[in-house]
Specification:
By secondary structure, the chain is an alpha/beta fold. It has 23 helices and twelve strands. The structure holds adenosine-5'-triphosphate (ATP). It is found in: Cell inner membrane; Cell membrane.
């Protein structure tokens, strides 16, 4: 469980625990007897002996509230737990096996949903007589189909995913797949459903008790207390306030607790949302205002990104800097985990929730010539830039296009999002033709699954260049495609760049061969840092960092007998070696490399390296 999740869980968790403890320990507390009447003092206000006053029979209100919590909570939790177990089981079985099993589980459970809940509860209570046991029974019947539907829907989605198919391909037994693979992956929405159901169960229990169909008087229950207080509302309005307040606060607290629990249980942090402008800017130190004198199109300076690690925050991108001129193509290259994607996402203002920028600036020159720091730009302004001045193409065109919307409509969206209203259809067809889609009029009407992977990527590119962006960010746009299609897409990007003239491109890749094809300059990243930078031709001809040299030597396009893999792997962000981060894998490492962390030093105009021994490589 994530540290952040645990911290957020602490407050609602502790309060809920305290309420539960009080409910459990009520018999041990020095409270007045909740059913002992004192008619002489009926409706008496708060006093030292009765902190919240006395009710219409002179019973102690505080004692009845606490005893009522015990009854309400135990009925609500017991009914929800029974409903959760039965409903989840039915939903998972129905969703996994489908067919007859689905009919016998989910569909049968859904019959219950056809009855109005109160009517069904009335029927059960009439048949079995009022009491806590009957309440638990009728509430669990009422709530089980809700769990079955959530579990069923989630199982259907998860069933189609690769990790479930992979388990089946490995021959894992069905029971194991259901319990070990499916259940944890559908747990988050079930937990939310649990919170909502406990809250509904408390409200329904109070409602039924209020109607005289739940807890039997004189036993204390919040519903019964509201019923009693209603009759004397004009003489003692506070009596109505206490049970209502207890009910409302407990329901709100339960919802908060379960929301936090869901966030903490989900390691993807998907519920956390992107860090808001305020949180992002508060994490950043104040930076000098961007002057209008910054040359070029883009200047990334000292960019440092942080994520929560097992033992505190870790920097996954450290002090990264580079610049880009209009019309230039810069490649960011490095192995998996080197921080290339996060650097690109930081430029677009699309960092995942767990990643926080803690230092640096990203200066961008807009169409109007003004220079803005993208790291400190409010989300509203970023949204105006995205898709117009800044555009991005992603690695996997299958997951970046909406499967339910026609291709032409998706390209038109990017035009309409930035105020284009006239002649959209003609421009979409022209764009699709520009990116080389055959028969663009017909293809515009196709759905993404009806065209090939390469064509989908062409559609993504059409949407990205629709508004003539000043900067196009391409994150491994050819990795998901086969080699011939890769070459076509690279040729298309190069042609588009020539046609667009001033459009700059940042091309993120792990493939040096692609860098040679497309880029003017390259930044080589390793373990979150820039280790070398320079014009592509110079980098290839004379690398000045052992990592660049090793990457070149490991290119499959080289002579097969000289192909050399780089030993070891990129270190984990929370276990970075002291000194030079590449030293443990470097053939040229010497003692000093393990002790000092070399700075990125400019060795010639436009060339920089982070190596103590770069001169020896010359
Ligand atoms: N959402 C996240 N939460 C926590 N850590 C993350 C997150 N995204 C990335 N990281 C970490 O940041 C580091 C850099 O990730 P990044 O995706 O930028 O690498 P990359 O060079 O683009 O690799 P790849 O080519 O595999 O995408 C990795 O070590 C990764 O574990």
């Amino acid at each position: 469980m994530r540290r952040i999740g645990l911290r957020a869980l602490a407050v609602p968790g502790l309060i809920s625990l305290a309420i539960l403890l009080v409910a459990v320990a009520v018999p041990l507390l020095p409270l007045a007897d909740p059913v002992r009447q004192d008619v002489a003092n009926r409706l008496a206000g708060p006093s030292a002996a009765h902190w919240l006053g006395q009710d219409e029979y002179g019973r102690d209100v505080l004692s009845r509230i606490l005893w009522g919590a015990r009854v309400s909570l135990s009925v609500a939790f017991a009914a929800t737990a029974v409903a959760a177990v039965i409903g989840t089981l039915l939903g998972i079985l129905g969703g996994y096996f489908r067919g007859v099993v689905e009919l016998a589980t989910v569909r049968v459970a859904e019959i219950v949903l056809c009855f109005p809940p109160l009517l069904l509860a009335l029927l059960v209570v009439t048949l079995l007589g009022p009491g806590a046991g009957t309440l638990i029974f009728s509430l669990s019947i009422l709530f089980a189909p809700g769990f079955a539907r959530v579990a069923y829907g989630e199982t259907l989605s998860a069933r189609a995913l690769d990790y479930v198919t992979a388990q089946e391909a490995l021959g894992a037994p069905t029971g194991r797949i259901l319990v070990r693979t499916l259940l944890p992956n559908i747990a988050a929405p079930l937990i939310v459903q649990f919170s909502l159901t406990v809250a509904s169960a408390m409200v329904l229990e109070s409602g039924l008790s209020f109607l005289g169909l739940g807890v039997v008087p004189p036993s204390p229950s919040w519903g019964l207390m509201i019923r009693g207080a209603r009759a004397t509302m004009e003489q003692a309005p506070l009596l109505l306030a206490w049970p209502c307040l207890a009910l409302t606060l407990t329901v709100l607290l339960l919802n908060l607790l379960c929301d936090r629990l869901r966030d903490a249980l989900d390691p993807r942090g998907r519920a956390a949302g992107r860090p808001g402008f305020l949180r992002r800017v508060l994490a950043l130190p104040a930076a000098a205002a961007p002057g209008a004198s910054v040359p070029g199109l883009l200047a990334v300076e000292g960019l440092t990104l942080q994520v929560p690690g097992p033992a505190g925050p870790v920097q996954v991108v450290r002090d990264v800097g580079f610049s880009l001129a209009p019309g230039e193509t810069l490649a960011i290259v490095g192995e998996s985990g080197s921080g290339k994607t996060l650097t690109g996402l930081a430029i677009m203002g699309l960092l995942p929730p767990a990643v926080t920028p803690v230092a640096g600036r990203i200066l961008f020159t807009g169409r109007d010539g003004s220079v803005r720091d993208l790291l400190r730009l409010p989300e509203r302004e970023m949204r105006r830039l995205r898709g117009r001045d800044l555009s991005m193409i992603f690695q996997d065109p299958s997951s970046s296009l909406n499967p339910l919307v026609r291709i032409g409509v998706q390209v038109a969206e990017s035009l309409r999002a930035h105020g284009v209203a006239e002649g959209v259809k003609g421009r979409v067809v022209a764009l699709l033709r520009q990116v080389g889609l055959p028969d663009p009029e017909r293809q515009a009407m196709a759905y993404p699954h009806e065209v090939s992977g390469g064509q989908r990527q062409r559609v993504m590119i059409a949407a990205a260049i629709a508004n003539h962006p000043r900067l196009l960010l391409a994150d491994e746009p050819t990795t998901a495609l086969d080699v011939t299609v890769q070459a076509q897409i690279l040729a298309l990007l190069a042609a588009l760049k020539r046609a667009e003239g001033v459009m700059g491109m940042v091309f993120v890749t792990h493939n040096l061969a692609v860098v040679a094809d497309i880029a003017d300059r390259a930044v080589v990243m390793y373990a979150g840092e820039v280790v070398e930078e320079g014009p592509v031709a110079e980098l290839f001809a004379a690398p000045r960092h052992p990592y660049t040299a090793a990457l070149i030597a490991s290119m499959p396009e080289g002579e097969a007998d000289r192909l050399t893999a780089i030993p070891g792997a990129v270190p984990q962000p929370w276990a970075m070696p002291a000194g030079c981060r590449f030293a443990p894998r470097c053939a040229m490492a010497m003692e000093a490399c393990g002790a000092t962390s070399p700075a990125l030093a400019e060795i010639a105009p436009g060339r920089a390296t982070r190596c103590l021994r770069w001169k020896e490589m010359a």
